[in-house]
Amino acid sequence: MLEVKDLHVTVEGSEILKGLSLTIKAGEVHALMGPNGAGKSTLSAVIAGKDGYEVTQGSITFEGQDVLEMEIEERARAGLLLGFQYPVEIPGVKNIYLLKAALNAQREARGEAEIAAPEFMKLIKDQLAFMRMDGSFLQRAVNQGFSGGEKKRNEILQMLVLQPKLAMLDEIDSGLDIDAMRIVAEGINSLRAEDRGILLVTHYQRLLDFVVPDKVHVLVDGRIVKSGDAQLAHELEARGYDWLLEESAA
User: Fold this and answer.
1) Which of 58, 91, 96, 171 is the most exposed place for a label (fewest CB within 10 A)?
2) Is CATH 3.40.50.300 the right assignment for the domain spanning 2-249?
3) Within a 10 A sphere around the Cβ of 195, how many other Cβ atoms?
């Protein structure tokens, strides 16, 4: 589904990713871990098409398409979705309008008609209930005045409505209490499917107790230095990153 090969990325002249390679197959959940400044958020931002990143070498393909040649809206229509670590506020734009516009843009890209109002309202109400979100969220401006946990649940709500092919979640667990963590994890787990890939960028094992990944990768200094199954995350929780930093420097 996703193939990243020998990716080199600079930000304001500094090289952040230094030859990163990663393959995600349909049906898999991958966790990307590593110390601060290793480049974890950079990878998901580059795949999604965020401004400010320069790819100097390497390639990214998604279902055979050259991602780096696609505009950001083309990536979204193709089924790529990035859940932000720090979701932005959009004053004056109600949640319900954003969700409906995004869903209809996606349907248009697939050659489908706009969703009927009753069908949309049933969909949105079902997903709100699943995420334990009050109906008043729909009439509030996107993320404006939301708590940290509400913003993260809103990110998952958007994913549940849009059903992306590849969901990338950038530290979706940061700032969440245990109850909000469980709700967010339930939303992520409900997205697991044979035709969908999920990439979780996280610092901590605790999210992975609720969303057990198929593969765990450790990013150090712009490269993946170790990969393994879910047990690797437990090892990192117990030992930290120092042993891997020493190995990568050797």
Assistant:
1) 91
2) yes
3) 10
Phi, psi of 110 (to 5 degrees): -95, 0
Q: Are 149 and 176 within 8 A, CB to CB? A: yes
For residues 227 and 93, what is the distance between their CA atoms, to the nearest angstrom?
Answer: 41
Residue 122 to residue 117: CA distance in whole angstroms = 9
**81: phi then psi, degrees, rounded to nearest 5:** -140, 135
- pLDDT tens readout for residues 169-217: 988 888 788 888 898 899 999 999 999 999 999 877 888 989 999 999 9
Q: Which two tokens stand for residue 246?
A: 């020493």
Q: How far apart are CA 49 and CA 206, in angstroms?
A: 29
> What DSSP state is assigned to residue 214?
S
Q: Long-range contacts of range 133-139, CB-CB < 8 Å, 24 or more positions apart?
A: 133/157, 137/95, 138/94, 138/95, 138/96, 138/99, 139/94, 139/95, 139/96
pTM value? Answer: 0.90
Domain ranges in the chain are: 2-249
Tokens read off for 233? 């995350």
